[in-house]
Each structure stands twice: as structure tokens, then as C-alpha cells.
Design a protein that fits this description.
- This protein is mostly helical and 109 residues long.
- The chain is built from three helices and no strands.
């Protein structure tokens, strides 16, 4: 199965529309609940029923994660690596310090 490579070009759609980023904990809780029920026998689920339930929730979880990943890539700077972001941040901090230095010494002239 071929995996699509997300476009690193900015997308004009709004990646921050409500509901784009959501907690995955309820989906994980559902998966663990099904597995726990199967292991302890609380609910009389057959192995096939438990497998189908886990598979459906796992697909839902994968889809939610993929949606959030693509939305994060489409955020401004979302395509940058952590190292690139750190480098940019350091350069901005240096520039800020230079400008602050100029402003402070201009006040004393």
C-alpha cells in the first residue's frame, strides 16, 4: 500500500478550524477497554468481535493522528524541523538583544 507524502507547500485552507486538533485519549481508552473486557471476560465478546472493535478504533485513531499531522504541517513553519525552529529562535533572540542594546544606549545619548 503506497503512502501519500504530504505536501510541504503551504495550504490556503485554515488548519486551525475547530475540531482539527483533538485528544486521542478517548480513542485509546476505548481500545484498552475492549482489550480489558476480552482479557477479563467482563463482557462476553468473542475474539472476532474484540478484533473488529479494536481494528475499527485503531483505524479511527490513525485517521485522527494523520489529520492532525497534516494540519500541523500546513501551519506557518509547520514544515520546519525542531533544529531549524531553534536556529530561527536563536537568531531572533540575538536580533532582539541588538535592538534593545541600541534603544537603551540611545536613551543615554
Amino acid at each position: 500500500m503506497a503512502q501519500q507524502i504530504p505536501s510541504l507547500q503551504p495550504d490556503n485552507s485554515d488548519p486551525l478550524k475547530p475540531g482539527t486538533f483533538q485528544s486521542v485519549l478517548p480513542l485509546l481508552d476505548d481500545i484498552l477497554g475492549i482489550l480489558h473486557s476480552q482479557a477479563t471476560g467482563e463482557e462476553k465478546l468473542s475474539t472476532a468481535q474484540a478484533s473488529e472493535g479494536v481494528a475499527a478504533k485503531a483505524k479511527e485513531l490513525a485517521s485522527a493522528i494523520e489529520t492532525m499531522k497534516l494540519a500541523s504541517i500546513n501551519l506557518p513553519g509547520g514544515h520546519l524541523s525542531i533544529d531549524e525552529l531553534k536556529s530561527i529562535s536563536e537568531r531572533l533572540d540575538e536580533e532582539s538583544e541588538k535592538r534593545l542594546y541600541v534603544v537603551v544606549f540611545d536613551c543615554f545619548d
